[in-house]
Design brief:
single chain, alpha/beta, Uracil-DNA Glycosylase, subunit E, 6-stranded mixed sheet, 8 helices, globular
């Protein structure tokens, strides 16, 4: 996994995304003017023996693209990691940046697009360019029991990953919705509204709703905090 993560950070397959992530890193937002931005593609973060995978959309320009960790550095991050902590899946309710000591238990967080896209909207070609990274990551995560899809984009990516891993197409195609489950091989999908400010500030996604999804994910995963051959939690 370490080799894969290192390879991801060197990727330059998408000229538009390369230009954008590096421009943002140079012309930093005023609030972060004294910080050094990551400005590269983002590898996944969390337990390499994970039974639960959280699949998002893409790094935020001044969030993960700044901090160097998936879902870290913005309001979406604050909402998500607080829920993971309440569920017993994280060592802290806060995620600040790479190297802050945060650990995830039985969980890995990743995204189908690894670079921050302009307006948070990757193109279909950029999405497809990233698929091999996600495919290899999921192959290495041999103990995954459920993939939680944070938003419709992630739901579509999850279905694509299942097909690429030999699960085959489903007819009719499962439709995304909060709390919706889609059985299938090699693992079921569990839908959740994305913890964006647009959803959390309007009440479309509440803490209780996210807590409910995580409780269900733990049920589907069995005991996500017990990797094979381990006597305790893994970070």
């Amino acid at each position: 996994m370490g080799e894969l993560d290192a390879a991801v950070t060197r990727c330059r397959r998408c000229p538009r995304l390369v230009a954008w992530r590096e421009e943002v890193a140079r012309e930093r937002r005023a609030a972060f003017a004294e910080e050094t931005y990551w400005g590269r593609p983002l590898p996944g973060f969390g337990d390499e023996h994970a039974r639960i995978v959280l699949l998002g959309l893409a790094p935020a320009s001044h969030g993960a693209n700044r901090t160097g960790r998936m879902f870290t550095g913005d309001r979406s991050c604050d909402f998500l990691y607080a829920a993971l902590y309440r569920a017993g899946l994280a060592s802290s309710p806060e995620s600040r940046r790479r190297g802050d000591g945060l650990e995830l238990y039985g969980v890995r967080i990743t995204a189908p697009v690894r670079c921050a896209p302009p307006a948070n909207k990757p193109t279909p070609q950029e999405r497809d360019n990233c698929l091999p990274w996600s495919l290899r990551e999921m192959q290495l995560l041999e103990r995954v029991a459920v993939v939680v899809c944070l938003g419709a984009f992630a739901w579509d990516a999850g279905l694509r990953l299942r097909r690429a891993l030999g699960g085959g197409p489903q007819r009719p195609r499962p439709r995304f919705g909060h709390g919706v489950e889609a059985a299938g091989e090699p693992w079921p999908l569990l839908g959740c509204f994305h913890p964006s400010q647009q959803n959390t500030f309007t009440g479309k996604l509440t803490p209780a709703m996210l807590d409910g999804v995580l409780v269900r994910a733990i049920e589907l995963a069995g005991d996500p905090m017990q990797p094979a051959g381990s006597g305790g939690r893994a970070g």
